[in-house]
From TrEMBL:
Organism, scientific name: Mucilaginibacter aquatilis
Residues covered by the GH16 domain: 18-282
Name the UniProt record assigns to this protein: Family 16 glycosylhydrolase
CDD domains: GH16_laminarinase_like (cd08023)
Endoplasmic reticulum among keywords: no
Signal peptide: none
Pfam families for this protein: Glyco_hydro_16
An annotated GO BP: carbohydrate metabolic process
One Gene Ontology term of the molecular function aspect: hydrolase activity, hydrolyzing O-glycosyl compounds
Keyword 4Fe-4S: no
Keywords for the protein's UniProt record, in alphabetical order: Hydrolase
Cited SUPFAM superfamilies: Concanavalin A-like lectins/glucanases
Length: 282
């Protein structure tokens, strides 16, 4: 049930051009003050003061090998590129039951960058302008994890996630019997315009305070969750959404949810114009 809806953020504040170099960056916005941003207005690797890399096989039995080479900045954009190429798995162990070790090779590569141990935030308005690829097997995401604990007790917020023709907005905490407990909403990508919609840049946003987390795309509310209901169910009383979170941007391939990429033409890209974080002015 919708407890309340924070007033919408008009896209006029963010412009309609492709490059953040052409957009005036507001320092204040509707009672919020800009506290951090990456406009990606530089060439080369993502800024190491903000971002580090995930490497190798990470999660969800995904097909890609994460490596730094697939993420770079040019023309005012962060590019995360998925490629069909073969990489030898240095952790390969014949006969292993662990999926990260029983694959001798990876047949795709991509990148995942994160602000862990560099930047984290508790509450605020998070805004990302980006363009996603919706081809079969693509699994782009912009999401957060809590700084403390093991997943899912860390808490997770999927501000933007796409796979198998679905655009998703999700949250997860630790549920009963050590299971993951989700709050989630989806929209079929065809209902938004399909390939034509995906060919353009869109604005994803999270409004997060001590009471509510609301997730939007282009000012359309995707998910609104009462934070009080997302307490970890392990008896500790810890609410993972009342702690700082760090941010991830990645383009995964295949795996448990991503679908079959075998007939998809590569390379594919997740392009990000900017990420901005605002917090309430005190």
């Amino acid at each position: 049930m919708l407890k309340y809806i924070i007033p919408v953020l008009f896209t006029a504040f963010y412009g309609v051009t492709q490059s953040s170099a052409q957009i005036v960056k507001p320092d204040t916005l509707g009672g919020y003050k800009l506290v951090w941003a990456d406009e990606f207005n530089y060439k080369g690797a993502p800024d190491s003061s903000n971002w580090s890399y995930e490497r190798g096989f990470e999660r969800n039995e995904e097909a890609q090998w994460y490596q730094p080479e697939n993420a770079w900045c040019e023309n005012g954009l962060l590019i995360i590129e998925a490629r069909r190429e073969t990489k030898t798995n240095p952790n390969y162990t014949p006969g292993s039951d662990e999926w990260r070790k029983n694959r001798e090779q990876a047949y795709y590569t991509s990148s995942s960058i994160k602000t862990r141990r560099k930047q984290s935030w508790q509450y605020g308005r998070f805004v990302m302008r980006g363009k996603i690829d919706i081809s079969n097997g693509m699994w782009p995401a912009w999401w957060t994890l809590g700084n403390k604990g093991r997943w899912p007790a860390t808490g997770e917020i999927d501000i933007m996630e796409f796979y198998r023709k679905k655009l998703l907005a999700n949250m997860v905490c630790l549920g009963e019997n050590n299971k993951d407990e989700w709050a989630s909403q989806t929209r079929n990508i065809d209902s938004l315009g399909g390939k034509n919609w995906a060919s353009r840049f869109h604005i994803w946003r999270m409004d997060w305070d001590e009471k509510t987390i609301a997730l939007y795309v282009d000012d359309m509310l995707m998910l609104n969750v009462d934070v009080d209901k997302m307490v970890n169910k392990d008896g500790t009383g810890i609410n993972p959404f009342r702690q700082p979170h760090y941010m991830l941007l990645n383009l995964a391939i295949g795996g448990q949810q991503g679908g079959d990429p075998s007939n998809t033409t590569f390379p594919k890209r997740f392009e990000v114009d900017y990420v901005r974080i605002y917090q309430k002015s005190k």
